[in-house]
Amino acid sequence: MNNPFLNNDPEVENPDHADIEVNLLLEGIFRLSGFDFRQYNRSSITRRIYYRMKMDNIPTITRLLERVIHEEVFLEQLLNDFSINVTEMFRNPSFFRAFREQVIPHLRKYDEIRIWHAGCATGEEVFSMAILLEEEGLKEKAVIYATDMNENVLQKASKGVFPLHKMQAYTKNYMLAGGTNAFSEYYKTDHQYAYFHSDLLKNIIFAQHNLVTDQSFNEFHVIICRNVLIYFNPVLQNQVHHLFYESLSKEGFLGLGDKETLSFVDVMPKYRELAGGERLYQKMY
User: Fold this and answer.
1) b vs e for 219-241, b when ≥16 Cβ sit within 10 Å of the residue's Cβ?
2) Averaged pLDDT for residues 147-155
3) pTM of the prediction?
């Protein structure tokens, strides 16, 4: 666990010392904030620790812990560093095409549809789902619950404003995902940003929720959690999958990221795979 930015610090270069320091840091963060990163993928969380050390010229993890304990603003900054916010609209378009073709027909039978986007980050995939539901004539009877542990990214998500320079890539994704309109119909622009129509927000509820420490808050027909669980260790992945299973209605649907799978979790036998390679599953019982 060598620090690539602080190779001259003997304490950091000692793997045993570094592991102890990281454990103490994560324990301190949990006690101070309630956010539990102790079962996150260790290499991923360590990279974020070292990034903050480099940015603030902090020589050891112990010194960083001191600032976490005594500076509330610094703690908030580190929590933001730990939050995973990598996303894009219609990411992995084949997933959304498979959802349109294989899940939407099942959803038509419901009088109301409840969808949970867990770990929604800045909301690009939430808006993707809202657009898909509108095109399939289901938006008016659907409620999308978009949650994340990070309040700052939730505030950004709730505005529906995204950088204009990303629209070309998002338009390509949209078309590959089976979009039926001109993507530009869903937003207006200025010289810097794309502002998605407020009508898309009408049935979206943004709320803070921590997958590690919080419980289920509703019963859902669909749960989407893509490329979040890869940052959790196997024990935590199993815990979260139990949360999702308990939160899904009978014959509900679970969507994961392209690097994630149910293969090694306890609840795997209770699902059937809908689309080969697309990480779409249906709860069987």
Assistant:
1) ebbbbbbbbbbebbeeebbbbbb
2) 93
3) 0.85
Chain-centre distance for alpha carbon 73: 24
Distance of alpha carbon 223 from alpha carbon 144, whole angstroms? 10
Could you tell me if 90 and 170 are in contact, meaning their C-beta atoms sit under 8 angstroms apart?
yes
Q: What is the pLDDT of residues 119-129, one digit of tens each?
A: 999 999 999 99
Sign of CA dihedral 83, 215, 249, 234: positive
In this structure, are strands 113-118 and 220-225 parallel, antiparallel, or unpaired?
parallel
pLDDT per position as a tens digit, 185-231 = 999 999 999 999 999 999 999 999 999 999 999 999 999 999 899 99
Q: Which long-range contacts (CB under 8 A, 24 or more apart) does 2-6 make?
A: 3/50, 3/53, 4/50, 5/50, 5/53, 5/54, 6/50, 6/53, 6/54, 6/59, 6/60
Q: Give the pLDDT confidence score for residue 83 in this predicted structure.
A: 79
Query: What is the per-residue pLDDT for 13?
Result: 53
Q: What is the mean pLDDT of the segment spanning 104-122? A: 97
